[in-house]
Design a protein that fits this description.
Ubiquitin-like (UB roll), 154 residues, 5-stranded mixed sheet, 2 domains, DNA polymerase, domain 1, alpha+beta, single chain
């Protein structure tokens, strides 16, 4: 079947199997490898993408359900060489180590600030609660997202 969607603000049309997962379509067909396969059951958040303004685990999202929808991946949030403010804040706060979970955490942070530009620390913690990290802990991540809210649209 043919799947038509918008990925990182660009129309995309790909042939998929009816049972294809969004994660596999993004990684293998579109070569967008920022979303990672962690647990494969929607528990770790390594595969997080933004689908029509909501964070989703792409490992448990059927690609066919994305017909006509808009998807943002980590590859699409920077502006050329200019990092998105959340990405830049992660760098400044040393909020990453191995990098496996970082794309999902950044997208969860970006999405909560898109929805709630003045999100408080509690709301940020809730927004990233579906993203697991085994390296950094979460203090630097929350600090980075909190810091980024003052830099968006500067």
């Amino acid at each position: 079947m043919t799947l038509n969607m918008v990925v990182n603000r660009k129309p995309v049309s790909v042939e998929i199997e009816p049972y294809a997962r969004l994660l596999d379509v993004l990684r293998t067909q579109l070569k967008l490898t920022g979303a990672k396969e962690g647990c494969g059951i929607g528990e770790c958040g390594a595969c997080t993408v933004i689908l029509d303004g909501e964070t989703v685990d792409s490992c448990i999202t059927l690609a066919a359900s994305c017909e006509g929808k808009s998807i943002e991946t980590i590859e699409g949030i920077s502006d050329g060489d200019q990092l998105h403010p959340v990405q830049q804040a992660f760098v400044e706060h040393n909020a990453m180590q191995c990098g496996f979970c970082i794309p999902g955490l950044v997208l969860s942070g970006k999405n909560i600030l898109d929805k709630y530009p003045e999100a408080d620390r509690e709301r940020i913690v809730e927004a990233i609660s579906g993203n697991l990290c085994r390296c950094t802990g979460y203090k630097q991540v929350v600090d980075a997202i909190e810091d980024a809210k003052d830099k968006i649209d500067e």
